[in-house]
Amino acid sequence: MNNPAVRDAALFIFRAVLGTIFVAHGVDKMFFAGMDETTGQFSAMGIPQPQLSAYLAALSEMLGGAALVVGLLTTFVAGALALLMACALYFVHLGHGLFAADGGFEYPLVLIAGLLMIVVFGSGRASVDGVLSRADA
Which residues cross the membrane (predicted)? Predict the structure, then answer.
């Protein structure tokens, strides 16, 4: 398992899965639920500046998720998304128990842990960041 090719493949799959989840949630907020509905939900949950927060969350999830999938600015994007998820955990999920079915914090906690793994281990060679770093060498 210490083979660089295996590590890079695992990082690619991990990034692609997390990125796809974020893109899907951002697209849902922006286009399926709609920004008016999302803003209303954010307001009902007591999130500060609900309209600004709704747009920030939707755009961050869509663009950040896409950046994770291709591996562009990966550690920065993963760190920013981890902060976004920490805000979601605090404002939305705390006080509802552990389980996601009850609105609990398990889902954002798993996303934060996954994003922190990307911050620590990077994007791997199968990424735009990996290609650009090899081009510099």
Answer: 12-32, 80-101, 107-124
The whole-model pTM stands at: 0.94
For the stretch 42-47, contacts whose Cβ atoms lie closer than 8 Å and that sit 24 or more positions apart, written own/partner, are 45/91, 45/92, 46/91, 47/91, 47/92
> Rounded CA gap, 122 and 129, in Å?
9
Query: How do residues 49-93 score in pLDDT, each as one tens digit?
Result: 999 999 999 999 999 999 999 999 999 999 999 999 999 999 999
User: % helix / strand / coil in the chain, to the nearest 5?
Assistant: 80, 0, 20
Q: What Å distances lie between residue 72 and 18, 40, 66, 122, CA to CA?
A: 14, 32, 9, 11
Distance CA 66, CA 69 (A): 5
Residues 6+ apart with CB under 8 A from 67: 19, 73, 74, 77
Rounded Cα distance, 48 and 78, in Å = 23
